[in-house]
Specification:
Number of helices of chain B: 6
Largest sheet of chain A: 10 strands, mixed
Distance between the termini of chain B: 55 Å
Structural class of chain A: alpha/beta
CATH topology of one domain in chain B: Glutaconate Coenzyme A-transferase
Largest interface: A-B, 52 and 60 residues
Strand content of chain A: 25-35%
Radius of gyration of chain A: 17 Å
Number of strands of chain B: 11
Number of strands of chain A: 15
Oligomer: heterodimer
Radius of gyration of chain B: 18 Å
Order of helices and strands of chain B: HEHEHEHEHEEEEEHEE
Strand content of chain B: 25-35%
Amino acid sequence: MALSKEQIAKRIARELRDGYYVNLGIGIPTLVANYIPEEINVVLQSENGLLGMGPFPFEGEEDPDLINAGKQTITTVPGSVFFDSAMSFGMIRAGKVNLTVLGAMEVSEKGDIANWKIPGKMVKGMGGAMDLVASAKNIIVAMMHSNPKGESKLLPACTLPLTGVGCVKKIVSDLAVLDITPGGFKLLERAPGVSVDEIKAKTAGKLIIEGDIPEMTF
Amino acid sequence: MNKVVATAGEAIHDIHDGAVIMLGGFGLCGIPENCIAALVKKAVKNLTCISNNAGVDDFGIGLMLQQKQVKKMISSYVGENAEFERQLLSGELEVELIPQGTLASRCMAAGYGMPAVFTPAGVGTEVADGKEVRNFNGKDYLLEYAFEADFAIVKAWKGDTQGNLIYKETARNFNPMMAMAGRITIAEVEELVPAGALAPDHIHTPGIYVHRIFQGAAYEKRIEQRTTRKKKS
């Protein structure tokens, strides 16, 4: 069975380490916040100007001046701090944020990512994604292995306009966990009940398979 | 030194057709609602707007788009606005999409008196087209120029009669660096107090950057994505 969005988030949460400052993108990455292990301390950065993002507010306690980068109403946790957009991207550019998790339309076997534009169809803009991928030390992409048409999103080279070049380190898809290595996508884990052959068939880019590939457990 | 004007209309009285204006805010959070309403009323046209987003169909900069007052938008993300998308695809509206950190840095450079900055954002993408690339310590960076804006319009939480400003929570966002970047900077605030009433240590934007200030009225503070959780009983 392919992973649910919640399971993708849960698996990514296992990559978090105590003391990490983490930026979570919109969509599946936002769900990672729900699965941070209790024994570790992680500070969430929201690029609109907050370190120490907390959960959604209780009904009736929404504050229009307190939102995340997805424009959702949020809360803060003790020790939080507000700052302006220049400082926010300053800490991103300076490499202070330990991990960035974001979604993607396409990832190439060289770690290129495309997630901001479909020419002629969708022009929403890159927001902070280009800044994040250009500077983050560790980037994990959370996405479906295939697009709604059933085409692989893990490609030899991206076909859509790029967001960043050679920057993605790891992918957690609904089918597998893969590292981007100099030789291509290295298969590390597979979703429960998903065969190596299925992952092979659904990965258009170069796939490296070494030894037995363990199944993820939840 | 008193920078107080009575109304939004007075604050924006000399914003002319074809002006380049910066507008603070992230989404609908921390936007200068009163000045946007005054610009719509004044019906000034052919504006170039530098703002992270373009509002929604019926609020924020979206109101100016409805009146076709905007010639060009310079933004990082414009996803929540159907009228915007229509004008963009029909060619009525010129749009320059730039990375959010680059947008912030180009405002910052203007406010700090620096002509340009280098940033790695966009290297190897279409954002880099036509731009100078420099390599520092093995990594490529794009040369990005400081913005030149005729007017910057910002929204703060509190301000004093000398133009000193304090922002609230994430409504700060682009407001401080835009306040520093305008040739003329207009600030609207929720609460205007006499000089001396704000603690000097707490001020985010020194009044030297602010030319006009007024207390705004009837802030709607619309929420774009109302997300909540239920209380455990």
